[in-house]
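Hmm, what's this shape?
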Amino acid sequence: MKGFLLKAHAKKASAKARERSAVSRAQLDGQSRQTTETKTSAFPTGKINQTERDRSVLTDSSFDPREPRKEETVSDDKPPEKMSFFSMPQPADADGTSAWLVGNKTAMAQVIDSPGYPSRTPKPPRCDMTVFRQTIDQQKWGIFATGLIKSGELLFAERPLLVAPRSVPKHFRALPCPQYDDGRVMPLVLETYERMLKLSLDRLPADRQKTFMELPNARTELAGYPILGTFFTNNFGIENLKDNTTYDGYAGVCEMGSRFRHSCRPNIMQRFNLASFSFQFYAARDVEANEELFYAFCGVEGSAASRKARLAPYGIACKCSSCLNATPESDLLRTNFQSEIERLTEQTTECWKTGNKIRPEVLGNMLKLEQDMIKEGLDGISEFTAFLMVIGLTLKSMGQSSVAETYLTRCKGVVGIIDGSASA
């Protein structure tokens, strides 16, 4: 049980190392085009990076331009070494293709060697689970539920338009610029990375390239780099796809999934399935017909002021009720709910280990926190689902089996999504 709680916090923890089988060069060379060996750095990432990253990359003083480099030019007809461009999946199927800028062939091995690869994208219970339309005030566009959607149900799955390293490479060893100072190196790095992403996008059909470029671009600090700006505005992190050449793994931009609007009261969650090379979007709680579907672009913990600061790079001023009606009490709840869940969980697990009875006041504190989180709109996050399981198991250990079953049933549909055991 405690292990499941740790999985629920996976967005804040490092992924376990996984063995990667070797893939023969012959499997990869048919698709690859060679590019430059890189080192990567922190950079403002997309919707998924709930831990804030260093936003001073354009004036990063830690970069040493005097580091020796190969005297090698970078051109469109001769991309640098070590990175590769792929179209995924191979072979292609009717569910669409993705452009993938790969930093290391071990990442490709993770996908090719995943059980079931290549699989088709999974289909939801109904083909019309969602609709993309204007909001009631006709000021925005959003994705809405067309009918009742139960917690854990698949909304849709789609292949991303573009997958690339989650952070801009810090520098390229092959860049012939040892005489440049930092202020000139970083624009050259960004220009090179922009070109690499362009070469990746060129592998897509023209209509998918057009769709990518029509997505919003809120990254004003990347003026002059339209692909980078669009990528960092709209991407979702791929937590289960990493290699040793990328700073913090990969991220992908979707045609429909990237159109979800932000709320600090989210009601959906997503995961990436390697076998089908697709993002899968699920209801994180029961969703009513005509209810808009929201994803949290930043961490939902912390005060309203801190969340406002995290959203500023996206040009977003959140209008959810938790931001508009924030109070010192709601700020305190959002600041402390994670540690409070951990504290209550430790109290109950200690009782289970020692055989002691759980005190009624502990259960009372659990039920109060549950209701407070629902009221604050935190019932659509993974920590809440894990907490429901803790409450259910606590009730069961206290002999309240029927009530316990209602809690365990409520979280059953989402558990497999959080820990990755749900079928693709």
Summary: The CA atoms of residues 352 and 397 lie 8 Å apart. The radius of gyration is 23 Å. Confidence is low (pLDDT under 50) at residues 1-45, 48-81.
